[in-house]
Design brief:
279 residues; Rossmann fold; Helicase, Ruva Protein, domain 3; 2 domains; two-stranded antiparallel sheet; 34% helix; 18% strand
């Protein structure tokens, strides 16, 4: 099936609007509308939700979200070349798509949306991780979003869902899993995109928790994990020695052997240590 709505196939849209993907904007366009609709479905029932999309490009995922029944989509697009193509999508779905030409790192999108809100995006590779960290670290929790359904480089996706003891396990896994349930729901080969990237991609679905999984002060936990994983091959008694003079005692009080390394410690252990340090 070439299209999921009455609009032209994406390949024609890209040709007609001369939308050559720009590497400096992290652009890789998905052309298969059946695939974009499948990604939209990973976000669950959207009929009662506002959806934030970042980097819609020519509108492939946008069309998937609208075809799957999203109540309203707010699409933030930095590349002004894509606006005419997105305007055609907006015309086909009257009142359901708003497009903002701006930088997602600067636009206050939540102020323009009504709850419940879900974020669904094929994130530009150059800002994907930064946006995820921002969404996971708001000043107040719970955040504005109920779920995040995001496409990343597969390597980044694996870091988000990684478990202790694996090479991918680190700060991103702890940050994501402390406040959300995270799982990889789709993996995509390079040839699914135009132009094809050099790596595979994966879609991660994160569902927020009303409260963090274990109690801990966010700032203390962030500092501990930063110090621990910045020198991940060192024993924690060495990598964390600048944290407090009695770090070995604090580690033992948290149930952690001072000779352990950061990559061996589960989330619960880091949270216990954060509580000990905060005392």
């Amino acid at each position: 099936m070439a299209t999921i709505d009455g609009l032209p196939p994406l390949r024609d849209v890209i040709r007609d609007h001369e939308l050559v993907a720009k590497k400096q904007l992290g652009q890789n366009f998905l052309l298969d509308l059946n695939l974009t609709a499948k990604i939209a479905r990973q976000a669950g029932d959207l009929t009662a939700c506002d959806v934030l999309e970042v980097g819609p490009g020519p509108g492939g995922l946008t069309r998937g979200l609208l075809a799957e029944g999203a109540r309203r989509v707010l699409a933030v697009e930095k590349d002004a070349r894509c606006l005419p193509a997105l305007a055609e999508v907006a015309d086909a779905y009257p009142g359901r798509l708003e497009v903002i030409n701006g930088d997602a790192l600067e636009v206050d999108a939540p102020a323009l949306l009504n709850a419940p809100i879900r974020v669904v995006a094929n994130l530009p590779y150059n800002v994907g991780t930064e946006l995820l960290v921002r969404w996971l670290t708001p000043k107040q929790w719970p955040p504005f979003w109920e779920s995040l359904t995001l496409m990343f480089q597969k390597e980044v996706a694996e870091r988000i869902v990684a478990k202790p003891g694996s090479k991918a396990y680190g700060r991103l896994a702890l940050l994501a899993q402390w406040r959300a349930d995270a799982r990889i729901v789709l993996t995509l080969p390079p040839e699914a995109f135009t132009p094809p990237p050099k790596i595979h991609s994966a879609v991660v679905h994160l569902t927020r928790l009303d409260q963090p999984r274990f109690p801990a002060d966010a700032a203390v936990l962030s500092r501990i994990t930063a110090m621990g994983f910045n020198q991940r091959r060192k024993m924690l008694r060495s990598s964390l020695k600048g944290l407090t003079p009695d770090i070995e005692d604090r580690l033992r009080a948290a149930g952690i052997e001072p000779t352990a390394r950061a990559e061996e410690i589960p989330l619960e252990g880091f949270c216990a240590l954060a509580r000990e340090v905060a005392k």
